[in-house]
Give the backbone structure.
Amino acid sequence: MRASIALLTALLAAPAPALAGCVSAWSSKEYKSIGEVQGEVRARHGGARIIHVKLCGSGADAIIRVVIDTGRDIKTISLPAKR
């Protein structure tokens, strides 16, 4: 158990690899706001804790990548960026 906690701690502390065309700040005029993203994550994954959020791509093809902690595991989910 200690080894898994240590490994999880190391993975969370390590910087995530940069994804091409991803940003951590954007205008909510064109894309979903952080509040909207939080609402979708809560609706789909209950009490999951959001660890990291990025907007990847642009225009109609843009997605929002969210790293969440479900209490059991760490997952990366993708949501459409447009409303």
